[in-house]
Amino acid sequence: MAQLKVTLIHSAAHRLPKQRKIVEAMGLKRVNSSVLQPDNEATRGALFQIAHLIKVEEVK
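Structure (tokenized):
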């Protein structure tokens, strides 16, 4: 199964509470921090909610 490398490129401060919770649940702490997430429907749905704050790359 492929992995997704998610990088926070914009701060989650002053965003909707739901968006801040998603960023925190993904394990993203600071700007330019990255995490690996599994490529599945649940992850894709969460990433869609915060697409304007992140950069996503596929890792094999």
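The helical segments are 17-26, 41-49. The chain has a mean pLDDT of 97.
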